[in-house]
Structures are given as structure tokens and as C-alpha cells.
Specification:
With 271 residues, the protein is α+β, with helices and mostly antiparallel strands. The chain is built from 6 helices and 8 strands; from the N terminus they run ααααββββββαβαβ. α1 packs across α3. It is flat.
Length: 271
């Protein structure tokens, strides 16, 4: 327990997870500013995503589809907490805990799928990263219009000129097959496996007035998966377009240009 008196201009760091409250020590008006980081970024928040998915997976196990004991609500619940010696209550509690252990033992805990859902939800609330002048010149970024109230709204991106892949290059900032590309910024987006596609979700079109709205998504055929993986996992290094794995040269250029149009990748021939 910490009891601390702060004066004007003082700052107090409170570790994550600590509960606190502030009160005035004098008969006068006082105010303070509370700056918090890592909001909704706790183990409890993550497990809140994991557990419903785990239960959905567990129904494939016959044990989880068995009927609950007859009349179990007559000895379980708040009004029966005092009946600690009831054998039916003891047996039910043990069985419930055993089922939780079985959930883990059988591998019904989709940690990666839950991590993707968790990360994508956070992307919805993330302000797009600040880009240097060099990054802006080598990428194509969405135009966001400043409104009268100071908020931003999404605008249309600049249109790309049509040209053969062989002719496109860094001079035009449009990647061609011999160019090197990299993510525009760290954590600019994330790729996940959809039902029948690869989904690339990014925050580059997030506006301050639209935080919490669904982030923009690019849906790609599953065959692009290894190439998308190569681009994302190469960061901060660049990859050559014609070296992207498991897809044809036209597909290599089409993929990179799709990501380029969204602002996700930039030309990086000088790196």
C-alpha cells in the first residue's frame, strides 16, 4: 500500500495492474491527468478471446457433448455455496475442473488464432504510423481529409498509371519485378488465414475520427501465402519481387502492386 501526496508538477508512476484512487487533501479544487498505456492488453483480455474459441473446438470431443447431471442447478450456484459438504457439489466441481484440464490436454486451445483476432482488433484502434519524407516518397499513402472539427476522413488514393511490369521501377515509385520492397513501417498490418483466402489487415487508412471502425482488408488467394509471409517476416529487410516464392512472375508483380496501392509496402532499392 502506498500513500503519496503530490504537489503541482509532480508525476507518479503506477505499475500496470495496480488499483489506485486520488483525493484532494485540502478544501480546494484539484485535478490530475491520468495517462495509461497498454489498455486492454492484459492476460485476462487475451484469454477472453482464447476461451470461447477453445470451447467451440472442444465440441468435437464426445466428452464435452455429454449431458450435465440431472438437477445439477439444485446444488450449484450462489444460493448453494454454503453446502460445501454436499457430495454432489464436490463431484460436480471436480468434474468441471477435470474438463478444463481436458480442454488443454486435448489441444483445444487456439493460441495463434486468438492472437490474430486480438491483434486485428487492436489494429482497428491504432493510429497509422508516422512516415518520414523518404518513406512517403517511396510508397503510396491514402489521402485523409482534415474536417472542420479537426477529425480526419478517408479520401481516395492516387490512381496508378498502367504500365508493363518490366518497365515499372523505382524511378516511378511503382514496384516492378526487379525492384526490392519492404513493409512501409513495423506493425503496419498483419496477415491471417481466412476461410478460403489470405487476409491482409492494415491500419494505414485509419483516421482519428474513425478509430474503432473496421480496418481495411486485402483478400488474396491462398497461393499468395508464402510470398506474403516472405514480405512480412523479412522486415526490416527488403525482398526482391522476382524472388518471392511459389508464385509466377505476373503474380509476384500483382501481389506487390496490391500491397503497394494500399500503402503497406514501399520501394526499397537503396537498402
Amino acid at each position: 500500500f502506498i500513500d503519496k501526496v503530490l504537489s503541482a508538477g509532480d508525476m507518479l508512476y503506477i505499475p500496470r495492474g495496480w488499483i489506485y484512487f486520488a483525493e484532494n487533501t485540502q478544501d480546494a479544487t484539484s485535478c490530475h491527468v491520468h495517462l495509461s498505456t497498454n489498455q486492454h492488453h492484459t492476460w485476462a483480455d487475451y484469454l477472453a478471446v482464447v476461451l470461447p474459441r477453445a470451447v467451440d473446438m472442444a465440441v468435437q470431443d464426445e466428452e464435452f457433448r455429454k449431458t450435465l447431471p440431472l438437477g445439477w442447478t439444485s446444488y450449484m450456484g450462489f444460493q448453494h455455496i454454503g453446502n460445501g459438504n454436499d457430495e454432489r457439489r464436490k463431484n460436480f466441481t471436480k468434474k468441471a475442473l477435470d474438463m478444463l484440464e481436458r480442454l488443454v490436454a486435448k489441444g483445444f486451445v487456439p493460441l495463434d488464432a486468438a492472437a490474430d483476432e486480438f491483434a486485428i482488433d487492436h489494429l482497428r484502434y491504432r493510429v497509422r504510423p508516422f512516415l518520414s519524407r523518404s518513406q512517403m516518397k517511396r510508397s503510396l499513402q491514402p489521402k485523409l481529409t482534415l474536417q472542420g472539427d479537426g477529425s480526419e476522413s478517408r479520401g481516395h488514393r492516387e490512381s496508378l498509371p498502367s504500365m508493363p511490369a518490366e518497365e515499372a521501377g523505382a524511378a516511378n515509385s511503382i514496384p516492378g519485378k526487379r525492384d526490392w520492397v519492404k513493409l512501409t513501417a513495423e506493425n503496419v498490418g498483419r496477415y491471417v488465414l481466412g476461410e478460403d483466402c489470405i487476409r491482409v489487415v492494415h491500419c494505414l487508412s485509419n483516421s482519428r475520427g474513425g478509430l474503432g471502425d473496421d480496418s481495411e482488408t486485402i483478400e488474396l488467394h491462398p497461393r499468395f501465402g508464402p510470398a506474403v509471409d516472405a514480405i512480412f517476416n523479412a522486415y526490416p529487410k527488403a525482398v526482391c519481387v522476382e524472388h518471392l516464392p511459389d508464385i509466377s512472375p505476373p503474380d509476384q508483380v500483382d501481389l506487390v502492386r496490391s500491397l503497394f496501392r494500399a500503402g503497406i509496402v514501399m520501394v526499397a532499392n537503396d537498402e
